[in-house]
């Protein structure tokens, strides 16, 4: 523990906490500080000038990261008959209908993304109080309620990221692993930022992106110059 604390302290000492670094510089610093025995996730936090308590200021969507997230995504699909077969063929980890609903109600939620065919929504709708708070509720606007289940499963497995602004106006998302190249992380970051910028609510005036911070799982946060994200 003392060794880890010493390592973290030395990493912090090289970072100016009040400075906004260019994206490339920030990535280099984060990767240098990611020295755990496991492949740390690189995370991005976007502090937006929105109040998500107002419906017209909610920022939410999905984006396909060009290099994926580097993590294995478990996908559950609510579907029947031929659509269930399509989901399984596409690589879905769990496929079911009422039986899947019962599993979720019993507290077993062994998946990261949930997809449903439109005809299954009466069943899925009853799970809103369980899936909603976890950000797992299928939503037609996000492409997770769709007749094209195979396409949705493949996208989720390939590194599609769902983002949603939290109560404090912050979006958190993983944008790769420390083992990724600098270019791969930078391209993933820019893809996410571009999607969030395009999702800017019309009700928000002035500066939209107030602060951007990057970090690795066990490393310190590094502030990033928002201008370098759209260059």
Structural commentary:
With 231 residues, the protein is an alpha/beta fold. It is built from eight helices and nine strands. The chain has helices at 2-13, 23-33, 81-89, 98-105, 121-125, 128-131, 149-158, 182-198, and strands spanning 41-48, 60-64, 75-78, 94-96, 113-116, 160-164, 170-177, 209-216, 222-224. The protein has a four-stranded antiparallel beta sheet with strand order 7-1-8-9, with helices on one face. Helix 3 links the parallel strand 3 (75-78) and strand 4 (94-96). Helix 2 (23-33) crosses helix 8 (182-198). The longest helix is centred in the last third of the chain and has 17 residues, at 182-198. It is globular, with a radius of gyration of 19 Å.
Q: What is the arithmetic mean of pLDDT? A: 89
The percent of residues in helical segments reads 25-40%
Which structural category do the helix and sheet elements fall into? alpha/beta
The number of E-state strands comes to 9
Strand content: 15-25%
- Poorly predicted runs are none
The profile of the biggest β sheet is:
4 strands, antiparallel
N-to-C terminal Cα separation, in Å? 40 Å
Q: Reading side by side through the largest sheet, how are the strands ordered?
A: 7-1-8-9
Number of helices: 8
* Global shape: globular
User: H/E element string?
Assistant: HHEEEHEHEHHHEEHEE
Q: What is the C-alpha radius of gyration, as a whole number of Å?
A: 19 Å
């Amino acid at each position: 523990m003392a060794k880890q604390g010493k390592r973290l302290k030395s990493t912090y000492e090289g970072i100016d906490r009040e400075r906004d670094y260019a994206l490339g510089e920030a990535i280099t610093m984060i990767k240098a500080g990611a020295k755990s025995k496991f492949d740390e996730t690189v995370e991005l936090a976007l502090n937006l000038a929105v109040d998500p308590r107002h419906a017209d200021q909610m920022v939410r969507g999905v984006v396909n990261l060009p290099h994926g997230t580097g993590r294995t995504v478990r996908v559950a699909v609510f579907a029947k008959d031929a659509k269930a077969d399509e989901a399984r063929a596409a690589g879905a980890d769990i496929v079911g209908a009422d039986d899947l609903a019962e599993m979720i109600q019993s507290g077993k939620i062994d998946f990261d993304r949930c997809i449903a065919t439109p005809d299954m929504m009466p069943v899925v709708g009853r799970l809103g109080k369980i899936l909603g708070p976890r950000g797992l509720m299928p939503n037609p606007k996000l492409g997770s309620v769709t007749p094209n289940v195979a396409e949705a499963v493949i996208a989720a497995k390939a590194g599609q990221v769902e983002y949603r602004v939290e109560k404090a106006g912050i979006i958190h998302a993983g944008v790769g692993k420390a083992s990724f190249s600098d270019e791969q992380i930078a391209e993933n970051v820019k893809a996410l930022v571009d999607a969030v910028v395009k999702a800017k609510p019309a009700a928000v005036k002035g500066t939209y992106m107030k602060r951007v911070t990057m970090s690795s799982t066990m490393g310190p946060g590094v502030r990033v110059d928002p201008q370098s994200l759209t260059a």
